[in-house]
Amino acid sequence: MRQFLIAGNWKMNLDRAGSVTLAEQLAERLNGSDGAEVAVCPPSVYLDAVASVVKGTPVVLGAQNLYPAAKGAFTGEISPGMLRDLDCTYVILGHSERRHVLGETDEFINRKVLAALEAELRPIVCVGELLEEREAGKTAEVIQKQFEQSLAGLSAEQIREIVIAYEPVWAIGTGKVASPEQAEEVHLHLRKLLESRYNHEIAETIRIQYGGSVKAANAKELLAQPNIDGALVGGASLKADEFMAIVEAAPATVS
Q: pLDDT per residue over 187-243, tens digit each?
């Protein structure tokens, strides 16, 4: 059985006070029942403040990025060990904004994934196609390339620690959203890729989230799809009521 994971990616938003307030609101409203696992990923400068708020609550902490080195002369970067020191459980890697705005390659993302696993962090690895790639009928090809290269070299033991997030680039922050059928098609494709590389049991264990303009209004229909195991939420995660409505739309488990 796979437990749903609803993760809020706050991106480069909020200040310290706003981050603390939002974390407090979520922590107060989550009862730690058998529902979805809930994670928040604030900006790195507020990780420590948010960690203090969510410690001992059902909310788990995630980071938005890391650099794949234990330490060294990498000005402005954050190591996996630093994130563990702040009690992070998850780290988002391969987000389309880092791929397409900051030029990160599949190979570099793969280095980050391996570094995160070495530090006992759980990577949320994002894959997704551009609008022109979807319109050209290349979605499956793009997803397979990102899957194979971003997750290259992972053992069966390591892949069990991974969460995959399908985020169609054309649906991120645009107000557009993949239909439940479009999203399910890609999620099923990813599960088949997992089965082909590993085996059926592992493929059925790995959680695959959907991300891309997820909000309360569409969450229930998306999360009802058999291969969608949660959501990576952007803008809607900045409002406690909206985010909690998404959390409450998730079934306790998916078989």
A: 999 999 999 999 999 999 999 999 988 999 999 999 999 999 999 999 999 999 999
Is 150 in contact with 110 (CB distance < 8 Å)?
A: yes
Look up residue 10 and give its two tokens: 């706050």
Identify the CATH number of the domain in which residue 64 sits.
Answer: 3.20.20.70
C-alpha–C-alpha distance, residues 210 and 246, integer Å:
12
**Distance (Å, whole) CA 231 – CA 40:** 12
Distance of CA 253 to the CA centre of its chain: 17
Cα distances from 113 to residues 76, 213, 214, 229, 242, in angstroms, run 19, 25, 25, 20, 30
Check the CA dihedral 153-159-161-165 and report its sign. Answer: positive
Angle (CA) 206 176 145, round 5°: 45
pLDDT at 255 over 60: no
Cβ(197)–Cβ(154) below 8 Å: no
Question: Does the active-site annotation cover 189?
Answer: no
Rounded Cα gap, residues 201 and 238, in angstroms: 36
* Number of independent structural domains in the chain: 1
Q: Which of 95, 97, 187, 189 is catalytic?
A: 95
**148 is a catalytic site residue:** no
223 is in which domain, residue-wise? 2-254
Reference 232, options 217, 221, 251, 247; nearest CA is 247
The single residue of 37, 167, 187, 189 carrying the catalytic annotation is: 167
